[in-house]
Design goal:
two-stranded antiparallel ribbon, 4 strands, two-stranded antiparallel sheet, 6 helices
């Protein structure tokens, strides 16, 4: 599996640098708006020029599939290559491995899939870390936390 190194983060312990749940909520809201905007834009363009189905069931399956593909792509690609989504960029946070090691694509994909678990959003009521953070051994830290540990 391909690994993506962030040299400033290697071999550091970031568990005490995890950001507050309110900042995570802001990230979630921004990313949801961006993802839904992307979804509606792509769906509109595809519907306008390429895809037309006469069956409601096929349209429903197509819409769900398109949304899922865009969702997985948005989070997986941005968090793997940049360690942040647009929401994390605006709030100056990033994804890190809990022990500061390498972030593999498999770890990020596991994190992204874990977000689809329905109780994930409510997990913040009981914990500072989200369920998707726990399942993928990742956390969200301020971007300057790696400078403080260097």
């Amino acid at each position: 599996m391909k690994k993506h190194k962030n040299k400033a983060l290697n071999n550091k312990d970031f568990s005490s640098y995890s950001v507050h749940s309110i900042l995570r909520l802001i990230n979630f809201i921004i990313d949801t708006v961006v993802w839904l905007t992307l979804y509606f834009l792509v769906a509109y363009i595809l519907d306008l020029y390429f895809v037309r189905f006469s069956s409601y069931l096929i349209n429903y399956i197509y819409s769900i599939s398109l949304g899922l593909i865009l969702y997985l792509t948005y989070y997986s690609v941005l968090e793997f290559y940049f360690h942040r989504t647009l929401g994390k960029f605006l709030t100056r946070t990033q994804v890190a491995n809990v022990n500061g090691g390498e972030i593999t694509f498999l770890r990020i994909f596991k994190r992204t899939i874990s977000r689809l678990i329905p109780i994930d959003i409510f997990y913040y009521l009981f914990s500072k870390k989200g369920l998707h953070d726990r399942l993928s051994d990742t956390l969200v830290i301020k971007t300057n936390a790696n400078k403080e540990l260097s």
